[in-house]
Amino acid sequence: QVQLVESGGGSVQAGGSLRLSCVASGNTYSIYYMGWFRQAPVKEREGVAAIYTYGSSPYYADSVKGRFTISQDNAKKTLYLQMNSLEPEDTAMYYCAATDGWLLPMNVRRSDKYKYWGQGTQVTVSS
User: Fold this and answer.
1) Which residues fall within 8 angstroms of residue 8, CB to CB, at 6 or more apart?
2) From CA 4, how far away is CA 26, in angstroms rounded?
3) pLDDT mean across residues, the chain
4) Which pLDDT score is estimated for 60?
5) Helix (H, G, I), strand (E, B), or coil: what is residue 35?
6) pLDDT category, 75, cuts 50, 70, 90?
7) Which of 19, 32, 108, 113 would you call most buried, defined as having the most Cβ atoms within 10 angstroms of its Cβ?
8) Are the C-beta atoms of residues 5 and 22 closer than 8 Å to each other?
9) pLDDT tens for residues 34-50?
10) DSSP state of 112
11) Angle at alpha carbon of residue 13, lines to 7 and 18, rounded to 5°
12) Is the distance from CB of 15 to CB of 84 less than 8 angstroms?
């Protein structure tokens, strides 16, 4: 089992920045992929960014490329999402997720491929 706890959400004006953190505990050695997902009211959950924890180029949604950066600190068992140039359209609940399975590159941002989820942290961007 793996437990995930997110933090770092909040309210910011458009153009501002936030950094989300996700601390993993439990059987973390089994984790192959970790990702950040978001869900706004009446919208489907969207895979924002994902990373293969043993090393490879990260994966990003087109809507956040160049603005968001996913990274990990293995020593701290922590996943980060640095969000810059935030837009009102980025307003959503952000979730950290992890899985212990092998994923095809085309699937790394699919929420149904992830087994473990955090409770979410709200990000609100005002114009």
Assistant:
1) 18, 19, 20, 21, 121
2) 9
3) 95
4) 97
5) strand
6) confident
7) 108
8) yes
9) 999 999 999 999 999 99
10) G
11) 30
12) no
Q: Which residues contact 29 (CB under 8 A, 6 or more apart)?
A: none
How far apart, in whole angstroms, are the C-alpha atoms of residue 117 and residue 98? 7
The mean per-residue pLDDT over the stretch 80-106 comes to 96
- Alpha-helix residue ranges (DSSP H) falling in 1-127: none
Count Cα atoms within 13 angstroms, Cβ side, for 49. 21
Q: Which DSSP letter does residue 116 get?
A: E
Both tokens of 38, joined, read 């978001």
| Beta strand pairing call for 2-7 and 18-26 | antiparallel
Q: Are strands 92-99 and 116-117 parallel, antiparallel or unpaired?
A: antiparallel
User: Letter for the amino acid at 71?
Assistant: S
